[in-house]
Amino acid sequence: MILRDAFAGLTRFDEFQRSCNVAPNILSRRLKEMVKDGLLVRVSYSSAPPRHEYRLTDKSRELHPIMLMLTEWGNRHCVNGQPPMLPVDTASGRPITAVVVDKETGQPLTIDRYEIVPGPGAGARLRYRHDYIHQKRAGQMPARFLPPEAD
Questions:
Q1: What distance in Å separates the CA atoms of residue 57 and residue 132, rounded to the nearest whole number?
Q2: Domain 2-61, what fold?
Q3: What CA–CA distance (Å, rounded) separates 60 from 131?
């Protein structure tokens, strides 16, 4: 919810608190974690009294298309059939339909066509999980899911 509000233009602690309806201690902890993770940057806007705002980073801006997709998903599955939020083109106000496609082929990313596989940095636990899932899909049900304790 914090990123949703930051994408919309909120920057200050009290704005996030009122919009998200979250306790100050929880919001403070989440904002600190997001700053630590490089999703937000904390910038002073007043020295007396000391006040800060939280701004999006390049890293968090990369999540914006994903937020648009989540909005699309929510609109398709909202309870009363009336979308609470609509993604629109900022210049024209025209409603848009967000889609995610393979950059090379232009094909929509669907669960039956694409998957996530372990990369070069995957540890033993992730590789075990991936192998287990592939065996299960192939009908070769392993006895139990017993991944290694740690990587």
A1: 37
A2: Arc Repressor Mutant, subunit A (1.10.10)
A3: 32
Considering the entire predicted model, what is its pTM? 0.78
Spatial distance between the Cα atoms of 75 and 87, rounded to a whole number of angstroms = 10
Of 16-20, 76-80, 101-105, where does mean pLDDT reach its minimum?
Answer: 76-80
- Segments of the chain assigned to CATH 1.10.10.10: 2-61
Instruction: Give the pLDDT confidence score for residue 124 in this predicted structure.
Output: 92
pLDDT tens digits along 36-79: 999 999 999 999 999 999 999 999 999 999 999 998 888 888 87
Residue 134, CA distances (Å) to 64, 124, 141 in order: 32, 15, 9
Distance CA 93, CA 115 (A): 34
